[in-house]
Amino acid sequence: MAPPVSSLSLSPMASSTIPSPQLPKPSTVRALSVAPCNSAASSSSPSTSSSPPCHAAAPQVASAGRRGMLALGAGFLASAALLCPAGDAGATRIEYYATVGDKLCDLNLVKSGLAYCDVEVGTGAQPPRGELINVHYTARFPDGTVFDSTYKRGRPLTMRIGAGKILRGLEQGISGGGGVPPMLVGGKRKLMIPATLAYGPEPAGCFSGDCNIPGNSTILYDLFLVGIYK
């Protein structure tokens, strides 16, 4: 049976533990943090909550050092969980609980503009280029809005690396290169992908004129390399 088609394609239509972040150092690089909104949903369990919809707070901007530019931890993930879209609140909370336990880590900025950090370094094999891999991921905008997640669909995505079929930032973030180590099976990694390595200036994820991803969007990914597809 053929694997599912990747939703991370180039077409617009279509973890060793890192220590907790130190105090940021001044730099021209900006870090984004999101404060959770005030809502009873933040303390509800995924199975019992019936809280009304709420919206994540606007991102706050702060300066940070080049190798410690962004801490993506529980506070940021909690804000994403409180988005509670109508008719899909349960799925959003499931996704939230699947990733909220991840440890803090500092993003490392490389020359290409990609920033990455390992929540957990894998202990398995390094997938060869050209192979199909299974990956769980959650994709967000810097304000915390989740626009795609395999956890909400209940299964990882199968995609091919090294074939030029996925976003350049994801390719570098998974396969490595340019100062980024390759992911190993079992690893968990966070990426911040600039628009130049993502979808560029054009909107993406469009259907009937409605686009999920605005042009020039920076995208944040939580990745879990489940294994090599067999």
TrEMBL record:
The lineage of its organism: Eukaryota, Viridiplantae, Streptophyta, Embryophyta, Tracheophyta. Its EC number is 5.2.1.8. Its main location: plastid. It is an enzyme of class 5 (isomerase). One of its GO terms (cellular component) is chloroplast thylakoid lumen. InterPro entries: PNSL4/FKBP13-like, PPIase_dom_sf, PPIase_FKBP_dom. It holds the Pfam family FKBP_C. Belongs to the FKBP-type PPIase family. Residues 130-229 form the PPIase FKBP-type domain. Residues 1-16 have a biased composition (Low complexity). It is found in: Plastid, Chloroplast thylakoid lumen. The keyword ATP-binding does not apply. Keywords: Chloroplast, Disulfide bond, Isomerase, Plastid, Rotamase, Thylakoid, Transit peptide. This is peptidylprolyl isomerase. Residues 1-27 are annotated as: Disordered. One of its GO terms (molecular function) is peptidyl-prolyl cis-trans isomerase activity. It comes from Setaria viridis. The keyword Plastid applies. It catalyses: [protein]-peptidylproline (omega=180) = [protein]-peptidylproline (omega=0).
